[in-house]
Design a protein that fits this description.
- The chain is an all-alpha fold.
- The chain folds into 2 domains: about 1-35; about 35-80, CytochromE C oxidase copper chaperone (Helix Hairpins, Orthogonal Bundle), CATH 1.10.287.1130.
- Helix content is about 75%, strand content about 0%.
- It contains 3 helices and no strands.
- The chain is elongated.
Length: about 80
């Protein structure tokens, strides 16, 4: 009887343990490796559009491009 309890309890405990370790590993790996580029090299297209707009029209007129670049950077894993 004791043996069957271990067999019944063991898989669920093993599953619970593996889910916890996978979750913590995924978080650690995800936060460490998410920004794979330097911030200056991430999102070159939105950066170029943002910069051109600011030079030609001023920062106040370019909120759309500034926000688009911020969203792109966030998608790349940067906290901006």
């Amino acid at each position: 009887m004791e043996n069957s309890q271990l067999q019944n309890g063991s898989p669920s405990l093993a599953l619970l343990g593996s889910q916890q370790s996978q979750g913590s590993d995924a978080v650690a790996v995800g936060t460490e490796s998410k920004p794979k580029k330097k911030i200056c090299c991430a999102c070159p297209d939105t950066k170029r559009l943002r910069d051109e707009c600011i030079v030609e029209h001023g920062e106040a007129a370019c909120a759309k491009w500034i926000e688009a670049h911020r969203l792109c950077l966030r998608a790349e894993g940067f906290n901006v």
